Amino acid sequence: MPTPLDVTNNSHESAKAAHVNMMTDTIIANLPPEGLRSIVRGLLGVDNKNTAAFESLAIKYLDATNPASTPTFFTPKDNQPTLAFHVYRARYRCLMGCGKAFESLQALCEVARQVKETDAALESLEQSDLEGTAALIDSDLVQAITAVHKQLSTTSGLRPLTNTEQEIIQQLQNTLVECDNTFFQKQQPSPFFRGSSSLETLLSHPKKEPVFIEETLAYRYRPSSTAIETKLGNAVVPRMFMGLWQFSSPAWGAAPATKIFKDFQKHVDAGLVAYDMADHYGDAERTFASHGEFRRHAYLRENEAGRIYCATKWCVFEPIIVTPEVVKDAITERLATLQSSRVELLQFHWQDYNDHQYVEAAKLIEQDARVDNLGVCNFDTKHMDEIIESGVKIVSNQVQFSLIDLRPTFKMADSCRKHDVNFSHTAHYAKCGGLLADRWLGKSAPNLFDPDMTPSSRKYFEMITVWGGWTLFQELLATLSTIGEKYKVSISVVAVRWVLEHEYVGAVIIGARMGVSEHVEENLKAFGFKLDEEDLAGIQNVLDQCRAREVFDAMGDCGAEYRQ
């Protein structure tokens, strides 16, 4: 068994304890758990300096409550997850969230071992109660491996694994292989297809040019010349991209790989052929193109691969030293994961504006012949303009834009018009994490941590609060519902159509919960009508009452929320 990692050494911290007054202690002792969660989230949002202290205290708590033994996770015969499994799963998810990724992999290794020993391995997994639980565990594996990547990151790339870390990874790989073999012997699909693929990518960490250049050149995106397309750089692309950020966490739900690929195919059949992903969206890139072979194999019918448009990202969250080799390696890693010799759109995010290397990095990306088009992601107007005015051609800036987040209308829109160089503008969260929907009309405000609230809906509920509050939001929903009745579409479709009406918006990005739920037909309805002057005036009447300008002044320009 791998040697346990050392408990975090906090000897460098000062030996002190702050006093919490009686009244504050009374609040903490009596608030319900969902209330405490909402308040903690609020404190972290007010000042991100609180995050380090929060994670440090979480680590201390996890270390102090480490279970003395491993419980049984599944009931005999019917393979139902036990209460102990849910407690154990919550623990390893906390571990991956606060920088103890390898400890979370150790825990997941034990879970996978117990899955291998269930009765489900002796019958059809798809007909077993274990299928849904296995999909959750598979998604957990993907997120834990993403956390490992983050933990290994340095200014010059990923650092080598230590001996202890290699031992943990090797044991997990062995357990997953044994689990696969057990299921394969009974002609069952792998329960952990996504996790195994992610682990293989971590172990190989490719930095070599893909060897399939001739093959992938045949898979270049070819537009279909439909009415729902627009010009983006040197390509004609759909005005609706499917966003794959839900692959980053099972918080949006989880599904077996077979169901995921079926949903991909349904989107392609309907003409939704453009996909937005990133280096940190779990296994989105791998599922899209690599091990899942969605783009390269039988999941697509003959000649369909050339219809698929890929937009991915290189996101620099931590300090790096920008050199031609570092940038080239970053692009090569994206291409290797995508199993492609080039990428149609590479979107660049740079976290720290005080480090001005972002201009040089953008120049180096643009100069790389393997990148068809360069976009940026969550750049504000000032720094986007700086890159453009340095001579770099940017075709898109992916930022938040919706009826609840109007910040692009204050400065970004004018810049889009000013730089008439095929500059386009992609908008995500047009549906506000699912809150701009019929189901919320006439309903009271949700609790942030209700079971059906996702990270996206939590984020946008907080945005609604500063935008104008739940009462004004209900007025907006009622207005959109009236317009929707006129065109026989839902509130969500009207909200998306409103974003598309702006001439500086090249495309909207709609989150896709592949294998969990899909709204293909509904999403396409956004192209079946246009809002008239009466519709726009009705919506504007509500927006005139919101605090859009105050939000812009307080939060800052586009992307500022990621840097506070």
Set out the fold topology.
Layout lengths: L21 H9 L2 H14 L2 H16 L18 H15 L3 H16 L13 H23 E2 L2 E2 L4 H23 L7 H12 L8 H5 L11 E4 L2 E4 L1 E4 L13 H13 L4 E3 L7 H6 L19 E8 L7 H15 L6 E6 L6 H11 L6 E4 L3 H9 L6 E5 L11 H7 L7 E3 L26 H13 L2 H18 L3 H10 L6 E5 L8 H5 L8 H11 L4 H8 L9
- What fold name stands as the CATH topology of the largest domain? TIM Barrel
Q: Into which percentage range does the β-strand content fall?
A: 5-15%
Largest beta sheet: strand ordering? 5-6-7-8-9-10-11-12
Number of domain units: 2
Count of helical stretches: 21
Total E-strand runs: 12
Question: What is the share of helical residues?
Answer: 40-55%
Distance between the termini: 42 Å
User: What is the mean predicted local confidence, pLDDT?
Assistant: 86
- Rg value: 24 Å
Overall SS class: alpha/beta
Level-2 CATH architecture of the largest domain: Alpha-Beta Barrel
The parts where pLDDT drops under 50 for at least 5 residues are 6-11, 211-221
Shape descriptor: globular
CATH superfamily of the largest domain, called what?
NADP-dependent oxidoreductase domain
CATH class type of the largest domain: Alpha Beta
Largest sheet features: 8 strands, parallel, barrel
Organism: Phialocephala subalpina
InterPro entries: NAD(P)_OxRdtase_dom_sf (IPR036812), NADP_OxRdtase_dom (IPR023210)
GO molecular function, one term: oxidoreductase activity
Keywords: Oxidoreductase
Q: What does this protein look like?
A:
It is a single chain. The chain has 564 residues and is an alpha/beta fold. It folds into two domains: 22-204; 213-562, Alpha-Beta Barrel (TIM Barrel). The chain is 46% helix and 9% strand. It is built from 21 helices and twelve strands. It has helices at 22-30, 33-46, 49-64, 83-97, 101-116, 130-152, 163-185, 193-204, 213-217, 257-269, 284-289, 324-338, 357-367, 381-389, 412-418, 455-467, 470-487, 491-500, 520-524, 533-543, 548-555; strands spanning 153-154, 157-158, 229-232, 235-238, 240-243, 274-276, 309-316, 345-350, 374-377, 396-400, 426-428, 507-511. An eight-stranded parallel beta barrel has the order 5-6-7-8-9-10-11-12. Strands 1-2 form a two-stranded antiparallel sheet. Strands 3-4 form a two-stranded antiparallel ribbon. Strand 1 and strand 2 (157-158) form a beta hairpin. The two termini are 42 Å apart. Mean pLDDT is 86; it is low at 6-11 and 211-221. Residues 240-542 form the NADP-dependent oxidoreductase domain. One of its GO terms (molecular function) is oxidoreductase activity. Pfam families: Aldo_ket_red.
